[in-house]
Fold these 3 entries.
Entry 1:
Amino acid sequence: MLTATVFPKSQAAIQEEVGELVDILGASLSFLDAETVNSKCRTDAYGCGVLDKSAFGFHPLKYCLALADKAQGLGAHIFEDCPISRIEGKGAGRRFSVELVDSRSISAEHVVHCGSAYSHDHPTAGSLMHSMLKMAALPVMTYVMITNPHPQLENALPANHCFTDDRFACAYYRKIGGQLLYGGRVDAFEVSADRLQQVMLDDLLQTFPQLRGISVDVAWSGTMGYFTHKMPFIGRLSENEWASTGFGGHGMCTTSVGGKLIASAIAEGNERIELFKTFFPIPVGGKFARPAIHFMYNWYKARDRLQGSRLRS
């Protein structure tokens, strides 16, 4: 993965940082000067960069389905399209009743909340802790598109790396066949479906104007859940009630770690999970805090544009 700089920063400072990560942590990082970065992704938007030879991209849906297959092979039962209307009952020796919207229910000894910001879409009653998580998780929108082929795509991106940059609202992209998978942006309020493709194209063309005329095959949005301390919470909420949530867009690998920790705590009484007590969620309004988030993100994006213009000048 190649991370390119948008902000003005001395090459010496970046080289020093890379050297420390290599020496102390054994990271597989290499510093690339601006000329080398430009040979791999041809744009005036970037300066120097860092290449991580150990990083890679993979198909998240295939990964999720593989985990599901493995879990079912070990005896787990997975129920899809089962919206929950209510969670009742808690305490030692007392089972939970997880009631579904179609009046069916599931009896469970333990309940683990993993909905992150999507919990806002389910007005579950009867669980104080669930309500607390909803008020603590700040919903943030992000977006991805896949373009159609373009004759200049290979010239714009000669290298087969995954790319990203150092902006607050960074872009991330890679070629898939003759198409481009491109993601980025952060918003408190969702961009409407009829505007999404053009908004994403505008972002892409700011970095790669030579791709003008490129079209979108498909675009979609996702909701990330952040807590104010920007750390996930993995731990116990109350007796036999747990949470693994709030990964803020970094959950592709770390959610599996959270699942292992909670499973170990439930099945084996492992107390490693207590290390996360420091990051207990703080209710700050949940989705009702969106106007404040909107103001903050617009400020960050304005800073990104100003810093980027300084680099190009």
Entry 2:
Amino acid sequence: EEVRPDHVSMTTVINTLAMSAKKNRSNPKQAESIISRMEDNKEAALRPDVVTYTAVMKCWMECGSLRAAGRAVEIIDKLHQRYEDGYLECKPDTLAYNVALNAIAKSRAIEGGAENAEALLERMKDRYMTGDKDVAPSARSFVTVMNAWARSKDPNRGKHAEKLLLQMHELHSAGLDNVAPNTVAYSTCIFAWSKSGQSNAGSRAQKLLKEMERYRSEGMDDMKPNVFIYTNVMEAWIASRQPDALDKVEAILEHMIEQSNAGDRDSAPNTTTFNVVLKAIRHSSHPEMHDKAEQVLNCMKKTGVKPNIITYNTFMGACARAEGNEETRRRAFSLVLAAFSELQAIGLRPDGYTWPAIWQACQCHLDINADLPKINSLFDITVKNGAFNELLFNSVRGFLPPSYLQKKLNRKDDVRTLTVHDLPAEWTRNVKLGRVKDPTKKKSKA
């Protein structure tokens, strides 16, 4: 007996195209061609259903095309139209809407993506409220839109995300079980606040964290704060630029360590957590931030958390900003040198942020005359590592007198006119340099 294709087999083909759409960006066109032929076919067994159209949306979403967001909305509209025309198998459901929301949320290149995603969510809610239970929004629906706001550039992204979180609570209280707020929803909302840069970001994120802890104490298992949430609350405090931000961050770290010691491994601070605490110190106005940074680094090691290059870069950046008398500044610089030796000893490789941090500390804490031997030593180490990129060279040139660089370069001309491309190859061998612009070359007209 001849095996004939049906809508299930054709949908499987489209799903297969979706899985490889990242590598083959023409796959959505193939998927559209397949579903177009299915729509034109008079055999009921070959007619596309809501699952088929959802697969086409997935294909657009996975390929990363700028058309994905608009095409997803068009497909949702088509599903409603076909259902109204009598094709009952095309009735939109929650999954179809969620895929469309995800396609819009992922299209960050499209201006207004978060607004468009929320507009579609509103359509979904309106249909549910008027009796269409098949499109009941789920927690995933809300989280997808919240994530779109969090990753947008809107300064009110935290407020938008929290408004959606409140709507989740309201719908759940009204009897919609699958929209219950959970750890992911709270985490996304806190992340949105951490990226907002608003002065109340820290207090709002802290409030959400307290809510989670309260719900958890009341027995809600899916409302448990974890290391990512605690760390993002820290980020929110830093972004708020409040005078007590560092105190709040340190209190969160202490709470995380206490929770971890009591057996809650999900709250144990990780490398990123400690890096954020060091960042908070660097952004603070603490009078002895170098000592504070050293305490955090020691705490990190004591708890068994491994530092990475970001840890040391941030630590050295904090030390560079230390203020005080000559003794304080010299101690801060000695901590920078010790950190540099330590990171090399444990096998970490200095990156493009390491050298500027070291030289910033040098400029802030050393005297070009009194500390010339130390400066010479640092300069020679920098050359030996071939670490002079354009940013670092311009910074060092602004600190060191022209006569110093003339001697190092064995040149008598004005070093202030030099670019990084004029340096010996040894000085720049481990950095990527941009192309040298030819001033005699004119741009050709298209």
Entry 3:
Amino acid sequence: MISMIMVLNQKGDIMISRQYRDDVSRAAADSFRLQVIAAKETGTQAPVKRIENCSFLYTRHRNMYFVALTRSNVNPALVFEYLFQKIRILKAYLGEEFDENAMRNNMTLIYELMDETMDFGYPQNCAVDVLRLYINLGNVKPQDEPEPSQLTSQITGAIDWRREGIRHKKNEVYIDVLESVNLLLSSTGSVLRNEVTGQVQMNTKLTGMPECKFGLNDKLVIDKESSTQRKPGVEIDDCTFHRCVRLGKFDADRTITFIPPDGEFELMRYRVNDNINLPFRIIPAVQEAASQTKVSINLKVTATFSEQLFATHVVIKIPVPKNTAKAKVKHSFGRAKYEPEQQAIVYRVKRFAGKQECHIQADVDLLPTVRPKAWNRQPINVEFQVPMFTASGVHVRFLRVYDKSGYHTNRWVRYITKAGSYQIRI
């Protein structure tokens, strides 16, 4: 595994180093300084360098290099995740914009964190909330300091993301289902790419150590529960979960069971490829004059979602040739104008109601050129945000909270769909 962790400044001098195995030495920093920092490879080459049978995996924070050294065949994703977690922990202790001076002024703290987060080259506890309970340098005292027995179980136990003894006056759970629609249509209208990536964000304010059971309209679960279900489920792919989720139960019966962290966290991410309900249908028509001095653009934009809903912050960027002189734009509602810095006609509307249609017509005058050149047409880009709508059809079926005291929990669910890469070629 990892043999050594170093933090170097922009000159290549070692600020802090911690050796976990004796198969590398501090002299290796000289090789890294000469072949990576002095050669100015950062940002242009992959952040993995093999020098003299030693692998250097590194990332940057401001003007500092966080470097992991190893001679074994490690999993690079694990090493980079540890480095990112290390930076996240230092941000929690030293501030978001910690620099070289902050590192030098807190050497004792940083060496303590290095010893607690890694042992013999294997990453250990990287949970900030738990680290703060017993690494505080004597000046930051937790509000509810746990008993030594509880502290030991939190450090060594399976549930390090939540401590015992949490109390809330109101027991509430806020759930946000956030989706991004990625679409690419060809100039003939055929679909080249069509997918939805989503994430479930939660904010839990629950007392004690509750166990939660969370359910979506997953097709596999619905087909298993009832064959006479009115609404078919959604085929959810590529699920990734927060580490609080019990993956064994999900693999066995697709149930999402977990003991949640206190506060905000991302429960899961997913992807849907089939039966996507696109919120906007856009039909473009572009005509170039034979004289190459005029371009006529007609665009029909239709909101396909329910009349009870509306989209906000809708922006449609219609590309025009580089030699555009001016553009005369007519539209049903909203605002549209030619913006030379973006080389596009930009249509904006704050509120676009469901089932509404908008027609955009533009007459573009072009400057004459000495050497006529074909217009390299860029795709139309669309931005939007639709509250209480999911393009994939995913919705929350239930959230059950089980606790010994049996208290009542208020649940709040919100859906938001926005444009990811939403493009239509012309």
